[in-house]
Amino acid sequence: MIDKILVKNKLKKIEQYMEELKNIKELSFEEFQKNIVIKRFIERNLELAIQQMIDVCKHIVSRLNLREPNSYADCFEILEENRIVSEENLEKYKNMAKFRNLLIHIYDTVSDKIVFKVFKDHLGDFDSFTEEIKKAFNL
Fold it and tell me: How far apart are CA 91 and CA 69, in angstroms?
C-alpha cells in the first residue's frame, strides 16, 4: 500500500524547489554564468527535485511490488508500464534521472548550457510529474 503522506510530502518538496526556481526565472544566461552562487542554487534545486521524483518512483514500485528497476530511468518506465505516468511524459522523466546522474557524478564538467536549458525549459516537467502522481493516487 502506498504511503500517501510520504508521497504527498515528497511532491510538496518538489513544488517548493520549483517555486524557488521560478522566483528567478527571468535570469539571463550571462547572469547565470557569472554568478556561481545562483548557478549552484539552480543545480542543487534541480538535483533535489529530481531526487524527490526518484524517491517517489522507488516508493511506488516497492509498495506495489512491481518489477525491480535496473536504473532510476527504468523506475519511471515501470510507472509508465503500469499506467501511473503517461507515455507522453516518460522520456522527460527518464532524461531527468540521467541529468541528475550528470549533476551528481560529473558535476564539474556539466555544460552550463545544459543546466540553463533545463532551468529555462523544463520546470514544467516537474509539475507534470506531481500532477500525474496526484491523479494516480487521489492525493
Answer: 16
Q: Which three cell numbers stand for residue 40?
A: 549552484
| H-helix or E-strand spanning residue 92 | helix 87-105
- Structural domains present in the chain: 4-136 (1.20.120.580)
Cell of 48: 533535489
Residues 24-61: pLDDT tens digits? 999 999 999 999 999 999 999 999 999 999 999 999 99
Give the per-residue pLDDT at 107. Answer: 65
What's the rounded Cα separation, in Å, for the pair 139 and 135? 7
**Long-range contacts (CB closer than 8 Å, 24 or more residues apart) made by 22-26:** 22/123, 25/120, 25/123
